[in-house]
Design brief:
By secondary structure, the chain is mostly helical. The chain is built from three helices and no strands. The chain has helices at about 1-20, 30-60, 65-90.
Length: about 100
């Protein structure tokens, strides 16, 4: 239970960072459709990496790893990579600051 709560808090924090527009802009903005497609691919890949790492940690721990290991070794690296990749997409066309 504690590990699920920690994971939820990490995911919420990363989502808040992404939603706050912490990303830069690219020289050629993507269309909204292209942005959404690439963002979905990034998120699915990140989720697969996170789940794979968490399954490995669970197996290594004999069934119930420490919450800190799940967060520090499973959730945070995968979510950080996702944020960097999403940041690299820039702002979708039409959503630039005016």
């Amino acid at each position: 239970m504690q590990s699920k709560l920690a994971l939820i808090l990490v995911v919420a924090a990363v989502a808040a960072l992404v939603a706050s527009g912490c990303g830069g802009s690219s020289p050629d903005p993507l269309s909204r459709a292209a942005f959404a497609k690439q963002a979905n691919t990034i998120c699915l890949s990140g989720a697969e990496k996170r789940e794979s790492t968490m399954a490995k940690l669970t197996k290594e721990a004999g069934g119930e790893p420490q919450a800190s290991a799940l967060v520090d070794e499973g959730a945070v690296p995968a979510l950080s990579e996702m944020v960097e990749e999403l940041d690299g997409l820039g702002v979708p066309e039409g959503d630039e600051k005016k």
